[in-house]
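Standup notes, structure subgroup. Blocker cleared on the 2-acetamido-2-deoxy-beta-D-glucopyranose input:
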Amino acid sequence: MALSASMVSRVFIFAFFFSSFTAAQQKFSIFDVRKYGAVGDGRQDNTQAFLRAWEDACRFKGKARFYVAAGIYMLGSVNFIGPCFGRLEFQLKGVLRAPSWSGHSDSWITFRYIDKLVMRGGATGALDGQGEYAWQLNDCHKNANCPAIPTTLRLEFISYSRVHHIRSINSKNSHIVLFGCDNVNISNIRLSAPYNSPNTDGIKIGSSTAIRITNSIIGTGDDCVAVLPGSKDILVSNVTCAPGHGFSVGSLGRSQKEENVTGFTVQNCTVSNSTNGIRIKTWESPYSSVASGFIFQDIFMKDVENPIIIDQMYCPYPPCNKQSPSHVQVKDVLYKNIWGTSSTEVAVSLSCSSALPCENVVLKDINLNFQGSGGPAKSQCSFVNGLSYGQQRPPSCL
Ligand SMILES: *[C@@H]1O[C@H](CO)[C@@H](O)[C@H](O)[C@H]1NC(C)=O
Ligand SMILES: *[C@@H]1O[C@H](CO)[C@@H](O)[C@H](O)[C@H]1NC(C)=O
Ligand SMILES: *[C@@H]1O[C@H](CO)[C@@H](O)[C@H](O)[C@H]1NC(C)=O
Ligand SMILES: *[C@@H]1O[C@H](CO)[C@@H](O)[C@H](O)[C@H]1NC(C)=O
Ligand SMILES: *[C@@H]1O[C@H](CO)[C@@H](O)[C@H](O)[C@H]1NC(C)=O
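Run returned:
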């Protein structure tokens, strides 16, 4: 029996529909910002085009890919707000460039209330904060009317998500801030700003749980990673911090009713040409909380001013309100296999609170050298309980 032309076309149409249906289940639908009027010419403002593309991508009920092709896209402050209807991937092949000054705002690019977000760059994707002008305004302790200066990328209430292969350069303020996030993996990112750019923290984490930062390079003018109140189960692994102010807990105890910090591990990292290596810092105040469960291991320090430091009299600029010793209880801290060079004489400084001494601080296999006048390297302890074993250079004060 010969097939009629109409039967052939019906079979063909059926097959076509079937295959496009299965393809749609597997593939992403692309929301290309250029289709919404964006132009990557480094001149045109693309804020509205990006927001329109986001609206459609976020309402799409399948897998949506928000796509930024190569080019330089000028972009004002944007809030990408969920929840979205399907899975969302934000793919950045181009460079997003902030205006050099856009008035007062806390954040440049914000993602909020999104589950299973993937944000990825690649060899070319970058966020350019154009911070040079803002840095002059960001010396807040000298400036009573300090303006709000935007963070480059703010992730708020983001869960089960990944951010990878993204570059951020010259942020005006912090590069990345996470708040209220749960289970976010950040990997293969590169953050850079000059060593003397004020407040350009690499990644600040507050009120967040299960955050992993791996295989990344951070060089900036403030803390490479700072873990703030309410952080729990944070991991930093194979990250280079150079230059910067090191990996920090705090500052804590600055305000009332702060949440505890529980569980922070830094491993397999390098800190170089930095003011601090691993630092725990708390203000002298009556505000109490607990900071506990720290593992700092397999860390190479090169020319770091304070490789290992607990500072419970933190006050970066006067006048300091020393009304009370710190009421942040620091406990269960392990420093293991930390080696390299200190650029000052005191390589290990554990300066805890007279009201609540540090508990269970353990030093194991420390080998930090200082080559300069006043050497060899020394360690300094006050109000700290704990023990040391294995190699101890400088000699332990515990
Ligand atoms: C993050 O990484 C950990 C360890 O590889 C993995 O178990 C977890 O599922 C990852 N989370 C996401 C959201 O990719
Ligand atoms: C460590 O991170 C660097 C920089 O991202 C990467 O090139 C390297 O492969 C990572 N090493 C491991 C063991 O994952
Ligand atoms: C902080 O930890 C202490 C000791 O585990 C606990 O008593 C206190 O309730 C915690 N604070 C908060 C805000 O969870
Ligand atoms: C540290 O890095 C080394 C080599 O890059 C690797 O073999 C090892 O598994 C890493 N350790 C951890 C705890 O990531
Ligand atoms: C180290 O940091 C200083 C500023 O503190 C900078 O001038 C210098 O170029 C850096 N050196 C290296 C080798 O990165």
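Discussed briefly. Confidence is low (pLDDT under 50) at residues 1-24.
Next: hand off to the docking folks.
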